[in-house]
Amino acid sequence: MKNTITLILIILTLSACVTTTYHVTTESMLQQFANLHADTRQTFVVDSPLVFPGAVTGGVLSELDVLDAKGNEHTILVKNNTALLITTRNGRQEIYHFSNLILQNNTLYGKYSSVKLDDIIKIEVTP
User: Fold this and answer.
1) Angle, CA 46 vertex, CA 40 and CA 47 arms, to 5°
2) What is the count of structural domains for the chain?
3) Residue 14 lies in a domain
4) Taking the complete model, does pTM exceed 0.90, yes or no?
5) Residue 41 neighbours by CB under 8 Å, 6+ apart
6) How far apart are CA 99 and CA 16, in angstroms?
7) Reduced 3-state DSSP string for the chain
8) pLDDT in tens, 64-91
9) Among 16, 41, 89, 98, which residue is least crowded by beta carbons within 10 Å?
């Protein structure tokens, strides 16, 4: 009996930690960014030993319309730790967080890297 209760508690704990992954198309993300107000953020490009400060104008999303694995539409709240796993045509995968994500001039900029929207084949979203 004690082992059964322990097993049930472990299963409940593990199931609470499972995070759902959603998908969004590049076109859908572009449409959602298109209706935003402009926001200017400070950026820094590091090319050791030099640092180049700059300002980039973009938008801030508070909600994102996404699709689950079955194709059902959901609206999720965007937080600083909401992550995008971007897969490009050459198979490279990179993670971008909304806390430092800017979409400008057909390019998605993150804290350390950028990717052209035309090169993206898949976007996975983890709330």
Assistant:
1) 140
2) 1
3) no
4) no
5) 55, 56, 57, 58, 100, 102
6) 25
7) CHHHHHHHHHHHHHHHCCCCCEECCHHHHHHHHHCCCCEEEEEEEEECCEEEEEEEEECCCCEEEEECCCCCEEEEECCCCCEEEEEECCCCEEEEEHHHCEEECCEEECCCCEEEHHHEEEEEEEC
8) 899 998 999 999 998 878 889 999 999 9
9) 16
Residue 68, domain member (yes or no): yes
CA distance 124 to 83: 8
Q: Which two tokens stand for residue 15?
A: 């199931």
Specify if 84 maps to a domain. Answer: yes
Place of tokens 């198979």: 91
Question: Quick one: how far is CA 18 from the chain centroid?
Answer: 17
Q: Is residue 4 part of a domain?
A: no
Query: Per-residue pLDDT tens for 11-67?
Result: 655 554 556 889 999 888 888 877 665 555 555 555 556 555 555 544 567 888 999
